[in-house]
Task: inverse folding
């Protein structure tokens, strides 16, 4: 499937399914004929190529620019690719911003510099954080189907779960008032909870509402509920143990999502009808005073200093002047990279909760000239990637270490981060341990026992700045290309076991051997288990990049040729194939499969006992300098994105039998146009094309189309 994330565009096969395949055209010589001309994944296509030599191989390769699999997030739809959070609601208390991040739990940011918030920690709640309210150092997290989670955040770096309260429905929006907490609980209506003792919250009442309670606002004894299709409800809260319905406003098709109060007016964000202005002078008879049309669903609202801030989903952030409260005037618009679902305010900074794209800090001092000042993980420059179990680790310089959950390989979801004073220049993971390059601080070991809040377990000064790091689980190599390399024994407290003088170009550690490319481009090696003895290495020169795993070694040369060698059981190395990849910049091994990022393409080839298999090329949306791979996905860092993912295409190939090839199409073959490429001893050439057409996708049309692509509410 296509991978990546973007706000608009096609779903590119996220829902799977497909496919009619049709011969779109052939290239001479030897044009191919397909039987049948249309087929479905899982079926076998008979391909006849006149004049083909015995033993020839035919395979599929995506055509560049043909809408096939891409390595990047540009132009893809909601729910695809890298996901920087499901932020929905936030609360500000003093110098702290608390964000309910659907996927990760509660994120806490320092606002000492309001324009540049800094993530302090992430506390993974038991459920799925939909909303948060904070009072006196206690965070009340609406935790979806897990009810209410009460978190002690007086120590912001070490939050602790104080209490949980199981509740009917789905907890969405909490609002504290006095000793009570009012909680909009979706299909269960409104809960009233006694929080006199936050460690022992107690449900005192539930009001069943006609729709789904998304949000609630409270002023004195008046409560107002945005009740989705149930409309806008006004409540009498004079006796919190017995909340009573006072009035209701609704019209056909109304889908109310959020509400804020200003005097006797209520501003109601809706999914399809923009923002409604309701007069609540008589709460028993809410009256429509005005309506603000919106280009997108008005999913989150905030009020401050006579201005209304609207998180308008795919239309970004909109700011209105309330000098005439019933007829707000638009002051400014800022389109955001994701889907704006919520907004919180502090002074002249607005914090936009941008579904899939992260949290953005926006200068709103001049609404007509709004600008993003910072955010998280905005601006992360990924310099290294590594896999550790179900986690993808990204060294993001001054953005720290980013941790992504990759249980869904094509949808890496940001889980947690670790900041470091000198930044994180590189990362390596092996044997259950994680190591980071910390510049002048040396090599750091990361405690990943809580991936939502990774922390430094300790670090090792090594007498030089550390820009790169590698590990095979037993040994850790680190260094600076200009200064040299050092090797540490993983888990040992003693100093370096080996030091190599610089300069060098690249290095790797595998099976107890340190490999490196010297400044002259020649490959060198040292055995680590038996001391600093030279290791036998393949004779190679002009090298710039290395990848090693077990007894397999691959190197990229200045000529753009990649060569692989396999260690023989009796010692020494045997050639395992060569491959030219124009513009090659990075390479990675995932078991016996080689991945190379070149100019406009990711090239994948299996390293078999008889050499490299067919090289399968997949288009790249941008240049990639770092790669990490596993059998399910390849991860890269194409600027300006932090991380992008792509599923390597399966090997769809066949050998000729009497001039006929039989290609079995995988069930998950992505849509797009594919080249039929033939190699028969006279070089590789194109002999035809094959088109895979998606069964779903296309641009979003209208609210119903968008609604169909959103997560279930």
Result:
């Amino acid at each position: 499937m296509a991978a990546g994330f973007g706000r608009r565009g096609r779903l590119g096969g996220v829902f799977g399914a497909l496919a009619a395949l049709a011969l779109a055209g052939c290239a001479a010589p030897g044009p191919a004929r397909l039987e049948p001309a249309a087929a479905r994944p899982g079926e076998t296509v008979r391909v006849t190529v006149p004049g083909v030599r015995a033993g020839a191989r035919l395979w599929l390769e995506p055509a560049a620019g043909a809408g096939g699999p891409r390595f990047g997030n540009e132009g893809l739809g909601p729910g695809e690719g890298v996901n920087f959070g499901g932020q929905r609601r936030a609360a500000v208390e003093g110098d702290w911003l608390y964000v309910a991040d659907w996927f990760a739990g509660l994120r806490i940011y320092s606002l000492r510099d309001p324009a540049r918030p800094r993530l302090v920690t992430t506390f993974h709640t038991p459920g799925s954080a939909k909303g948060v309210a904070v009072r006196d150092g206690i965070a009340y997290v609406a935790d979806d189907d897990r009810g209410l989670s009460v978190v002690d955040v007086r120590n912001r770096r070490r939050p602790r779960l104080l209490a949980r309260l199981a509740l009917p429905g789905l907890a969405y929006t909490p609002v504290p008032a006095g000793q009570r907490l009012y909680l909009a609980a979706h299909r269960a209506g409104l809960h009233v909870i006694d929080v006199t003792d936050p460690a022992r919250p107690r449900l005192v009442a539930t009001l069943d509402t006609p729709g789904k309670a998304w949000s609630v606002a409270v002023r004195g004894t008046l409560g107002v509920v945005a009740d989705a299709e149930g409309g806008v409800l006004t409540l009498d809260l004079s006796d919190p143990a017995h909340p009573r319905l006072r009035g209701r406003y609704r019209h056909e098709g109304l889908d109310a999502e959020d509400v804020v109060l200003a005097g006797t007016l209520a501003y109601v964000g809706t999914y399809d009808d923009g923002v409604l202005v309701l007069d609540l002078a008589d709460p028993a008879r809410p009256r429509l005073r005005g309506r603000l049309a919106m280009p997108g669903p008005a999913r989150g609202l905030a009020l401050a200093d006579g201005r209304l801030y609207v998180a308008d989903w795919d239309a970004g952030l909109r700011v209105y002047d309330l000098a005439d409260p019933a007829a707000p005037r638009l002051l400014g618009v800022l389109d955001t990279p994701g889907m704006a679902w919520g907004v919180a305010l502090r002074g002249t900074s607005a914090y936009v909760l941008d579904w899939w794209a992260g949290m953005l800090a926006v200068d709103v001092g001049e609404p007509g000239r709004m600008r993003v000042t910072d955010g998280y993980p905005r601006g992360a420059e990924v310099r290294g990637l590594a896999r550790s179990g179900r986690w993808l680790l990204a060294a993001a310089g001054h953005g720290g270490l980013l941790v992504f959950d990759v249980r869904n390989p094509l949808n890496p979801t940001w889980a947690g981060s670790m900041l470091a004073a000198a930044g994180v220049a590189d990362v390596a993971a092996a044997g259950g341990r994680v190591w980071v390059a910390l510049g002048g601080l040396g090599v750091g070991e990361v405690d990943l026992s809580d991936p939502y809040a990774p922390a430094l377990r300790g670090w090792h000064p090594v007498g030089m700045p550390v820009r790169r790091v590698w590990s095979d689980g037993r040994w850790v190599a680190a260094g600076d290309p200009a200064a040299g390399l050092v090797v540490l024994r993983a888990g040992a407290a003693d100093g370096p076991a080996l030091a190599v003088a610089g300069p060098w170009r690249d290095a790797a550690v595998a099976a107890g051997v340190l490999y490196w490319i010297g400044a002259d481009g020649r490959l060198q090696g040292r055995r680590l288990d038996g001391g600093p003895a030279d290791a036998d290495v393949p004779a190679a020169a002009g090298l710039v990049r290395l990848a090693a795993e077990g007894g397999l070694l691959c190197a990229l040369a200045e000529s753009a040729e990649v060569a692989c060698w396999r260690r023989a059981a009796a010692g020494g190395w045997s050639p395992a194939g060569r491959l030219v990849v124009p513009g090659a910049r990075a390479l990675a091994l995932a078991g016996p499969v080689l991945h190379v990022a070149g100019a406009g393409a990711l090239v994948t080839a299996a390293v078999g006992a008889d050499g490299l298999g067919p090289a399968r090329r997949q288009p790249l949306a941008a240049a990639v300098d770092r790669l990490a791979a596993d059998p399910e996905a390849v991860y890269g860092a194409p600027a300006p994105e932090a991380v992008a993912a792509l599923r390597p295409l399966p090997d769809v190939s066949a050998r000729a039998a009497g001039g006929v090839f039989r290609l079995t199409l995988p069930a998950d073959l992505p849509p797009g146009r594919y080249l039929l490429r033939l190699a028969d001893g006279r070089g590789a050439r194109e002999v035809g094309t094959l088109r895979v057409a998606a069964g779903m996708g296309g641009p979003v049309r209208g609210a119903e189309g968008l609604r169909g692509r959103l997560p279930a509410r």
